[in-house]
Specification:
- By secondary structure, the chain is mostly helical.
- Helices cover about 90% and strands about 0% of the residues.
- The chain starts with a helix and ends with a helix.
């Protein structure tokens, strides 16, 4: 009984330690993903607009440069938004994969714990059966011995 309780306590401790470690690893993983964020790569059209805007401004054609700048700003906002959505989706997928791996790791530990618990219960049942058999054998020996002694005592009385 004590061995089973100790095993359960140790198993619970292992599970809690793994959960805490997974939380720390998830935080570290998220931090690294956010650190690796890159700048968006803009389309050639946007880059062309920016160069054209710059050339027009140098040529002192400010009205035309302003129109190109507004177009480029709208395009840049649209591309940045698309890039942010794509990166957000990518980060979510990586995080989901990471969490899935950790769930599998936790599940594997739980399976090992359950297998160990089943083995312990089986061993305990085997030990109990062995004790019961020993008890029966001892009881039978005592009964046979007492019967023999009774028979001998009866013979001596006659």
């Amino acid at each position: 009984e004590k061995i089973c309780k100790d095993y359960d306590d140790q198993s619970e401790c292992q599970l809690n330690a793994m959960r805490e470690r997974h939380l720390e690893e998830l935080k570290e993983f998220q931090r690294k993903l956010l650190q690796r964020q890159q700048k968006p790569k803009y389309s050639p059209v946007l880059l062309t607009y920016r160069k054209t805007e710059e050339h027009l401004a140098r040529a002192k054609n400010y009205a035309q440069a302003h129109k190109i700048k507004e177009k480029a700003d709208r395009l840049q906002a649209k591309e940045t938004e698309q890039w942010n959505k794509m990166k957000q989706k990518e980060l979510f997928q990586k995080e989901s994969q990471f969490k899935s791996n950790k769930r599998q790791e936790l599940s594997a530990l739980q399976k090992r714990i359950n297998a160990g618990r089943a083995e312990q219960l089986q061993r305990r049942a085997f030990e109990l059966e062995r004790l019961i058999q020993r008890y029966r054998n001892t009881k039978n020996e005592l009964e046979a011995s007492q019967k023999l002694e009774r028979i001998q005592a009866e013979k001596m009385q006659k």
